[in-house]
Each structure stands twice: as C-alpha cells, then as structure tokens.
Amino acid sequence: MNYSQPLELTGIISTLDTFFRNNLTPFWATFIEGALILIAILAAYAIIALALIYIERKITAFFQSRLGPNRLGKYGVIQSIADMVKILIKEIIQINDVDKFLFYAAPFFVIISSVLTFGAIPFGMGLQAVDFKIGIIYVIAASSLGVIGVLLAGWSSNNKYSMIGAMRSGAQFVSYELSAAFSLMTIVVLSGTMQLSEIVENQRYAWNLFNGHIPAMIAFVIYLISGHAETNRGPFDLPEAEGELTAGYHTEYSGLQFGFFYLAEYLNMFIIAAVATTVFLGGWMPIQIKGLDAFNQVMWYIPSYVWFFAKTGVLIFLSLWVRWSFPRMRIDLLLNLEWKYLLPINLVNILLMVLMVLAGWTLSDWFPGLFAIAP
Amino acid sequence: MLKFHFIRKIFFILLDTNNFKITQNIPPSGFRGADINNMNPFIKYISGIFTAVKSLLGGMLVTWRELWRKKVTMQYPENRDTLVISDRWRSELTMPHDENNEHACTACGICMINCPNGTINVISKTIETEDGKKKKILDKHIWDYGMCTFCNLCVITCPSDAIIFNNDFEGAMFDRSKLVHQLNKPGSKLREKKPLTPKGEQKAP
Amino acid sequence: MAQQIIFYILALAIAVFSILAVTSKRVIRSATYLLFVLLATAGLFLLLNYHYLFAVQVTVYAGGIMVLFIMSIFLTHKPGDQFITRMSWKVRSSAFLAVAGLVLCGYIIVKNVTRVYSYINGNELQMQDLGTTMMGTEKYQYLLPFEVISVLLLACIIGAILIARKEKSPMNPPQGDMD
Amino acid sequence: MKDIILKAVPDAVIEEKQKLTVTVEPKQLHPLIKALYSNKELPFDYLINLIGMDWGEKLGVMYLLSSSADMSREVVIITSTDDRQNPLLYSITDMYEAAHLNEREVYAMFGIRFINNPDMRRFLLDDDWNGFPLRKDYDADSRLNPITIVNKEIKDIAPFIMEDADGKLTEGTTRIFDENDYIINIGPQHPSTHGVMHFRTSLDGEIVKKIDVNSGYIHRGIEKLCENMTYPQILHFTDRLDYLSASINRHALCMCIEKAAEIEVPARAEYIRVIMDELNRISSHLIAWSAHCNDLGATTAFIYGVREREHVLDIFDKTCGGRLIVNQNVVGGVMFDIYPDFQKDVKAFIPYMREKLVEYDDFFSHNAIALGRMVKIGNLTREDAISYAVTGPAGRGSGWSCDVRKHKPYSLYDKVDFREIIRNEGDSYARYMNRLDEIEESLHIIEQLVDNIPEGEILAKVKPIIRLPEGQYFQSVEAGKGEFGVFIESRGDKNPYRVKFRSPSLAAVSAMPLICRDEKLTDFIGIGGSMDYVIPDIDR
Predict the structure, then answer these.
(1) Are D378 and D388 in contact (CB under 8 A)?
(2) Nearest-neighbour CA in chain C from A76: distance (Å)
(3) pLDDT of A300 over the 50 cut
(4) Which one in A169, B182, C15, D425 has a CA-CA gap of 20 to 30 Å to A146?
(5) Is C165 within 8 Å of B15 when comparing Cβ atoms?
(6) Which CATH architecture has domain D2-158?
(7) Least CB-CB distance to B151: which of D182, D203, D327?
(8) In a domain, C177, yes or no
(9) CB–CB contacts below 8 A, A to C
(10) How far apart are CA A159 and CA A161, in angstroms?
C-alpha cells in the first residue's frame, strides 16, 4: 500500500512519537503520550456528542416538518454549545433521602463505560487508542458496564418512576446484550479475528456485510436493532419512557449529572454506529476495487477518518430515522422480540455463518480475484 | 420501602410468559397483512416477521418523504411583514377615534353590563351642556386585557358601535397593571350625531 | 516504573474496597464496592497484558454477575436498610474461614511463585490457541467439560423458569394449553 | 312505557314536558329505575345524565335515562328529599356504572349522600371543603375555604352508607388501596394525562391493578357561575369545557335556548353551524389521533396531526376570529357570516385531508409496534360501554351505535348522508380507527353542505334580553368525544336556575379503571390516549 495519503494524520502522530521518544525517557514519553491520547479522546467525545445533539435535533425537526434550532448562529449551529454551557452552570440539586454515594456515582458508570468503548474505535488509519487482540470482546465488556450505572441511578434516586425505569433497563440490557454480542461473533467467525484493526484491514476489497452476504446482513440488522435497544433509544426507550415514567431512571438528576446521562446516550448511539461501521462496513477503509489502481488511489486521497465518519453518519441517520418513525415498544413486546425472534434467528445465523465459512461460500471464496486480500 | 415488594413482582412478570399477550393471532379490521389464522406455526412465525418489517418500512417511507417536503414552521418575529392575521381576529378592544379626536361612546354602559366577567368598566361623568342641560358623558372606558375572554359580546351589543376589536396581537407585558387599558383618548369627546349607518356594518366585515 | 505505580494504585483500590465491601452496612453499597474490587482486578489483568482475562473479568463479573447481584438485591427485602450482625458465632466462623482461605492461597502462591513468575513473563496468549483448546477433543483440551457445563447450565435455566412459574400458579390456575 | 312505570310505582307523577318526566318518592326510585332498566322490550340501560338539584326547600336528583338500542326514547326521573341537613337518597350504581362518579359529584356539590354507593367520597372537591357549592344557600366567602400551600395527604378511606335487607342503615368505611399496594401517581402533573388529571395507580410489577380517579384540579365552577349570568353570557363558557369541540358544545347550548325560547334559526346559520361543527370534529379527532400516537411514543405523528389541524384552525380564524375558542354560535344564529373565500378554503382542505388520511394509514395504522400496543388492549365490551355511558368514537368502537346525529338528529343531520362508524372489537385499535374513519365521514358531510349554503340572514331576530319560559330543557349533540348534553332549568328569569352539562369525558375517565385493569403500565397511557378525554370537560 504505497499510495500517497496527504491528509492522513499518521505522519503527524509518528513525528510526535519519535520526537517524544528521542527527547524524553521512555517513562515520560509514554506518560505524555498517554495524557495526550486521553485529552484527544475526551475532546473528541465531547465534540462528537455536541455535534450529534445538534444533528439529531435538526434531523428530527426535518422529519417532523419543522426547522429545528435556528436562532443561535447560522442554522442554529451553536445551539448545542449554548445548551452545554447551560448544563454546566446549572445547579446540581441535592435531593433528600437518596443514597448519596450511589446517586453521585451512577452517572460516572454510564459515562466511563461509554468512554472506554469509545477509546477502542478505530477512527482512521492509526487513529485508535486501544487496539487489543480481543477488540470485540473488549467493546462488549466495556459497554456492559453502563447498565450498572442505570440500575444504581434508578435505585438510589428513591423515586418510583426511576425504579421502574431502572428495572426495565436491566431486563432490556441483559437481553439485548446477548443479541449484540452474538451478531458481532458472527462476523468474528467470518473474519477470523477479534482485533478491530485487523477486521478493518480484512475488509479492504469486500465489506463483511457483502462478503458474508445473507448471514452477515442478518447479523447486521440484528446488531443495529439490539445496539439500538442497548442504548435505550428509539422505539426502545422504555427506561425513560417520558409518556409514563416522566424521565425514567434520570428523573431526579439535574445539571451536569443529567448532562452525563445525556452525553452518554448520544455517544452510545455513535458507538453502536461506529462499531457497526468497523465490523460490517469496512471501518475507515476507503472503497477499493481490486485491479483498479487509479480508482483506488483517488479513493485514498480522501482521508480515512472522513470515510469512517461518513459511514458512521449514515448509520446514525438510520438510527434517527427509526427513532422518529416508530412508537415505543412495551416491555413484553420488547422481550418477545429479543427472546422469540432475535435470539433464535441469531443462533441459527451464527451456525449458518460457520457452515458458510467452512464450505467456502463467502464472496471472497467465490471470487478471489475480485474480493480476496491475499491472492 | 414498599417498593421492593413491587420489584419482586416485576421480576416474575418478566419470567412469566403467560403475561405476554399474543397480539397477532386475529387480524384487526383493516389489517393489511395476510390472513395468519390458518397457517402452521412456523410459516406464521416467518410471515409475522415479514408483515411486521413491511409495515415498519412503510412508516419509514412516510417520514422519508417528509424529510424533503417544505417545512411548515413560521418564524414569527422575522415574518412580521408577511404575517397575515385574519380581519376578524380579536386581540385588543379599541375605541376608534376620528381625526377630530371624537368617538362614538355614549357611556350607556351596555358593554359593561353584558360583559360576563367584569372586564369592562365604564366610568361616566355628568357635565352641564351649553344650554344648561345635564348630560352624562364618558369619562373613562377601562378594559382589562388580562381578564377579557374575547367573547365579543360587548362589541355586538354596543348600540352605537363605539368599540371594536383590532388585530394587534402582540399584547404581552411584563407588568400586569399595563394590561388595563383606557380606551378613550385623553380629551376626546362624543361625536355629534351623524346620519345613521345601517347597524352591523362594522361588526361583520 | 509506571507499571509499578499503577499496580500499587490498583492493589490499594482492591484492598480498600474489599474492606469496605465487607464492612459496609448496606448490602447494595457492599455490592458496589465489590464491583470496584472486580474492576480493579480486571485492571491488574490488563497490566499483565492478559487482555482476554481482562475482558472476561469485566464482561462476566462486572457486566454479568454484578448486574445479577444488583437486580437480585433489588428483589430482596429492604436492600437499602442498614443491617446489624447479631450472631457472633457466624462472625467468628467466617473469620476463621477467611483466614483459612488466606493461608491456603498464600501457601499456593509461595509454593508456585517461580511458576507464576514465568507465566507473567510469558508471551501473550493467542486467541486461536484459546479457541482450539476450548473446542478441541485431544488431551488438555476441553470440549467435553465445555459441553457438560452447557448442559448443566441449560438444566439450571429450565429449573429456574419452573420455579419462577410455580410462584404464580396458585393465583393463576393453568389456562388451557401452555404453548 | 307509562304502563311499566305505573306498574312499578303506582303513585308516580307522570308529566309530558319536553321529555316524559316522572316524579317519585326517594323510596320508590330504585324499584322504578330497576323496572325501567330490566324491562324486556326497551331496557333503559343508558344513564345519560345525573343532575343534582336544589329547589329551595327540597334537594333532589334528576336522572335522564335512555335506551341504548333506541336513544331517542328518553325519560326523566325526579326524586327529592326535604332533609337539607342530612339528605339521603338511593344509589343506582348497582345498575349503572356511570352513576359512581356522578353521584360522588352530586355529593360534593349538593351534599346528598347515596345509600348503597360503595364509595361516597367527594368528587371534584376536597374532603374538607366547607359547604356545598351548588346549593342555593352556599356561602362563597373565601375565608371559609382558604387557599392552602401545604400538601394534603390523600385519604385512602372511602365512607359509605349501606342498607341491609330490613332497611337498617349502616355507615362504614372501606380502603381504596391496600396498605402494601405499590401506588404511583399518574398526574396531576404528568406528561400524558391530557390535562390536570390524577390517576392513583396501584401496580403489581408492570401491571395495573387498580386505578383511583381524582379530578377537580382545574374545577372552575362553571355551572355555579351560569346561575348568575344571562343566557348570552353563558355561551362563552361552553367553549371552555371540552375546548377541542368548542363549536359543537356551544351549538348544543344555543339549540337548547332556542328551543326553549322558540327561536327559529335561519337556514344559512344552520349550514354554517353544521360545517363549523364538522370542521371542529375533524380538528378534535386530529388532536385525539396525534395525542394517542404521542402517548404511544410516536412524537412525529403528533406533529403531523397538529400540522393538519392548523388548516382547520386557519379556517376558523378567518371565519370568526378564534382558533381554539371559536366563539361562533350565538342564540338565534351565528355571530359571523362566512368570509368570501370560505368555500374555496374548505374545498381545498377536503382533498388535502383525504391525502393525509392515507398517509396516516401508512405511517401508523399498520405499524407492527403500534398494532402490538393497540390491538386487544383496553377491551371495553358493549355492555360496559353502555353501563359506563361511554359514547362517541370510544362507545362506537365497542359496537354500540350511539351517534346522537343518527338517533336524535338535530340541525341538518337528518338531511345529510353519512355513515355511523361502528366497530365491534372494543379495543384501543377500534377506537383509534373509528376516529380516522369519522374524519372521512365529516369530510363527506362538509362536501355535501359547503356548496349549498343558502343566502339569507345569519341571525334570527332575538330580544335583547332572553327569558326562557319556566321549565326544564334538554339538548344533546354529538361532540368530538361523545354525547354532550345541556340541561337548563328556568324559572322564567333572564338567568337560568340551574345549568348542567353532560360531559362525555367523564364517562371515558370513569371507564378507565375497568379497561386498564390487568394491562401494563405502558398501555395504561396508550388506552388513555385512545379514550381521548379532555379534563376541563370533567372539571366544569
């Protein structure tokens, strides 16, 4: 791969790395690099969340025949920054009769779990903070922590609405985590690795979605549905169903603590889309066609992070589209969907994928000249 | 601490499949899916999925089309110039004065009597005219914007068509006392009798 | 050095939260402290580059077991209430058991300290190896135990459902067919 | 019918007034109503209205009964007691479920307690309210009932008076909820109670066990206010009852006064009234649809419905200068003539609305999630609908033909062609679909009328001061939510002696505990949306 990629950030990053390593002791070099990465991740986290909040409000408005925020700045672009400032300076209301320690700890669980997951996402070539061999299990593990925050928030608020919301959330999360994990595992079977960077690399000429065709597409749809359900959004927003529970588990939170839940909700939506992009849609890899070197080179001029955000953006749009088209589910319909539909289909699907891979029925097996990476 | 009794219950609901209503057995009237009553369970299961997905996609198509349509939001302060308020819109009670600062109110008080909730207060005073006769004329016509229910009774009962509702809808104030309007302008007086116009012309434009 | 600092932080966290977990009077808080202990342990695994163990620790213990714990604590009577331990023989016997466990662990660690050291300095485990070990049928491979455990778990799940359904039956007499 | 009455109660006084009126002693009330209720040919099983009365020395109750099969057959039954200190009458709650909340309201307003009613708390008023507001000797001194800023505990204890077989009265109390019940408040400040309604809901997990209806948070005492106002002044209150069917409500009151005062309404005014009524019904149903969808969690649908309603409101706005509070009907006709482009606007609206109805169908009516949330949820059988007096699209969703426009045609409804939409499922979905279909029927009615508006006056000659001849006057119309009724008792003054409005929403709310029992909490909200109640209509 010796195409020129003028806009990639890998050059800057490696320059920085060499500079630190040459001038500092290994300990301090690691320390400073770690700190920089942390700052970069947190900054990206906040900026993406703000952007998503703005985008969601705008797109929602367009779906609903409205204009959305349009007072602050051109087209209302600084609306969500103003909202952030408002949330930052808002009073954190002290509530009597709550378990103070758990009440204040709960938002951190939610936000930390989503930051941890966020760190593992490959945003572009060389833009990945954590790249474990077991990347996918790591993503599943880190995101599974969030539900504890929701449960504790609901319980410690000492509010009946919150409690019902938390219990719903617990049931919902535990169920849908299964489906999400299984559908990711389907792709692990296909690509033979759990490392996110390798999964992206393997999809150079054929996205997993197409390479694994039928089972991969089923897995993709199931992952989107269950990921959606895990983030408590869209038709699955039962834990905070404002219709009956006012705001569910975060009814009693105010100011920055509510802000944490709010940020985490949006970021989780992004994470689900980003993981789906990475695993199914080739991640940051530009569209490549084997043999068309000129075309490939043109594609490489578009930097990898643009590809990543574009693909993720499409999935986020899909998520918003679904959210604003459907009514809310009921808890038994929700569990029915998971246990009677998604999970059985998923189990059959994973078996199908295994058979397909063993029998060599993937696209790259059928047309190695077009799709396989190795000749 | 009763809630834990309840929470135990919630858990059993989640486990108890008897509670799960089977909602797709009987198609409701107007249901578009295939008749799923007389099928074997597996086909029923599969066709259930497809009917559901089809209906959901149909819903998404509607929102998709909406995405590209013209938006209906009116941007109020900006559209002041083009904003059309219907002629009959009742916002503020006024007493039209002509160029001589004369109005048509004879201070008869019928509007005050007819007002259902005492929004109007007609204060009259008695003066002596040039020819020595005592005459009741209008001193103050007070109307409380904050109390008015805009039932239009005062306007339709006014025998001399002295008051009408106008279109100035921007009546919000920071101070409640500013909502109490005096309708007659200072120094105004009763218009001399003119040839009568047919009654009701002003009321129903 | 960085590793050492992180190790000490994690070790301190484990120690402090372990003590808090057993001394806290509120069961729900104990569970939360236990969660911190488990997370810190996961951190230790991470420090050792045992990524798979780390992820499993977080998923299974923090994500799975703790959610189960918290949910089941919610289902118990008055989890927020402070409880008072009265029966001192229980305290004594648990203390004895704890000390016994400590001694046992200490003995094993001291006995095997060299072997542990070599594990720590060994190469990172390949996921493929792990997979083949778990699903293989040869010597030192675990397909049979794996399957046996899954059958056992299935039996447990079915049993749990049966027990849960029984709870309702006096109020809800069985209606027709149970599909 | 007289035979049945005389057979049950030989000394009943039967008069032919506007309606057949029967006066009986309190003791004989229950046997009489029982006889009417259980007669084979035409059972009088529909309690339209239960009106408390204060005739000066006597306190009493009027029952307006009708038959669910033929709603044009109506009978008024009057009973009264001399005892103003401790008035006791017999309850009819064993036959009519609708009587529960009505009798409690009569207790709050007149202090009449009903023997054998199992729950004799005051409805609409606090338990510690001093005085009975609708009595003529009520002391309205605000010091007697000061505004408190302290939270009041809601009492779960309901008093009752029971009569056993040998006529002995025993007073006692019952608990509404068990001590161990897990009760959550849905309302009064809640996003989906459609107003300031308060449902105390006891839950068994997610499942609703019992609902206790509390209302009165925005009670304005309109019926009391009416007693001190002239007839034209009363009119503007009706717009503020069920504000979504403002025009229809006002039509009812105007018709009631016109009938009593024998005023002939010009044909042009009738046409305008009916067109406005039907437009109002469309806007009411659109709001009901939108709010129902919103209750089910589909926010987008809410915006769509409100967007279409805006077109109706624009027509209202141009016609009579009001959008929600249309203020169009007056005694003897309408206040404003139509504007020049009225026909054009209405005719442009009809195809537009039809197109949108198809879109609603695609968007929501067949959505798998929505079906799961509505089909077979909130079942109301025909018998229950009649017993609870649930009319309107909700009653017709239970298979009860109860359209006042068909059964007791008023204005032009006997001249236009339209279908009465009836579904037999009785679930949320039937009610939901009924509303959408009724929008189509309303469009059809408007289509027939809008081109044929005759020329002429819009207002009959009406005396400046209207005095109704002495008597009792009833009028029912089909409002957006169901049968809206007006009752006026006149003593020949320019003020009415007593005014009572029949609220269709009260019936819908009273049925909520029945149809929500054993449903999930989530569906409770959805069922509320499908019943479509408007709280100011209840808190008159």
Answers:
(1) no
(2) 39
(3) yes
(4) C15
(5) yes
(6) 2-Layer Sandwich (3.30)
(7) D327
(8) no
(9) 80
(10) 6
Helices (H) then strands (E): counts for chain B: 4, 7
A332, B20: Cβ pair inside 8 Å? yes
What confidence tier does C84 reach under pLDDT thresholds 50, 70, 90?
low
Per DSSP, the three-state class of D470 is coil
* Residue B119, SS3 per DSSP: coil
Tokens of A190: 């296909």
Q: What is the largest CA-CA distance in chain C?
A: 70
Query: Is residue D183 classed as helix, strand or coil in its secondary structure?
Result: strand
User: Do C130 and C119 reside in the same domain of the chain?
Assistant: no
Mean pLDDT within A257-280: 88
Q: Which two tokens stand for residue D370?
A: 């929505």
Residue D22 has what pLDDT?
83
Side chain identity, residue D414 = D
Cβ within 8 Å of residue C162, ≥6 positions away: none
3-state secondary structure (DSSP) of residue A97: coil
**C-beta of residue B122 within 8 angstroms of C-beta of residue B60:** no
> Which chain B residue shows the shortest CA-CA distance from A325?
B60
Please name each of the domains of chain B with its CATH number: 3-67 (no CATH), 92-190 (3.30.70.3270)
Q: How far are the Cα atoms of A234, C159, D93, D387 from residue D100, in angstroms, in the given order?
A: 41, 47, 6, 11
From chain C, pick out residues whose CB is under 8 angstroms from the CB of B16.
164-165, 168
Cα end-to-end distance, chain B, whole Å: 66
Mean pLDDT of chain A: 83
> Which H/E stretch holds residue A304?
helix A304-323
- D415/C106 Cα distance (integer angstroms): 98
3-state DSSP assignment of residue B93: strand
Q: Please check whether residues C120 and C95 belong to one and the same domain.
A: yes
Q: Are residues C71 and C145 in the same domain?
A: no
Report whether pLDDT(B19) > 50: no
Residue D514 has pLDDT above 50, yes or no: yes
Q: Which of B185-199, D145-159, D431-445 has the highest mean pLDDT?
A: D431-445
Map out the domains of chain A as residue ranges. 97-371
Q: Which chains touch D (3 or more CB pairs under 8 A)?
A: A, B
In this prediction, residue C103 carries a pLDDT of 93
Which of B21, B49, B53, B71 to mutate to probe the A interface, most A CBs <10 Å?
B71
Please provide the size of chain C in residues: 179
Could you tell me the CATH number of the domain that includes residue C30? 1.20.120.1200
Question: Which two tokens mark D143?
Answer: 């010091």
User: Angle, to 10 degrees, between the axis of helix C66-75 and the axis of helix A146-156?
Assistant: 20
Mean pLDDT lowest for which of A285-299, B103-117, D109-123?
A: A285-299
- Give the span between the Cα atoms of D446 and A224, in whole angstroms: 47
Q: C59 exposed, middle or buried (CB, 10 Å; 0-12, 13-18, 19+)?
A: buried
- Say how far apart CA B5 and CA A105 lie, in whole Å: 25
Average pLDDT over chain B, rounded to an integer: 74
| Cβ pair A303, A8 in contact under 8 A | yes
* Cβ separation B18–C75 shorter than 8 A: no
> What is this model's ipTM?
0.79
Extents of the domains making up chain D:
2-158, 222-538
Cα angle for residues D505, D506, D508 (degrees, 5° grid):
60
C-alpha separations of A329 from A211, A334, B11 in Å:
33, 6, 18
* Chains A–D, number of C-beta pairs less than 8 Å apart: 79
Cα–Cα dist D477/D253, whole Å: 9
Shared-domain flag, residues C29 and C105: no
Nearest chain A residue to D205 by CA: give it: A164
How buried is D60 (Cβ within 10 angstroms: 0-12 exposed, 13-18 middle, 19+ buried)?
A: buried
C-alpha A372/C-alpha A201 separation (Å) is 11
Largest Cα span, chain B: 104
CB atoms within 10 A of CB A121: 26
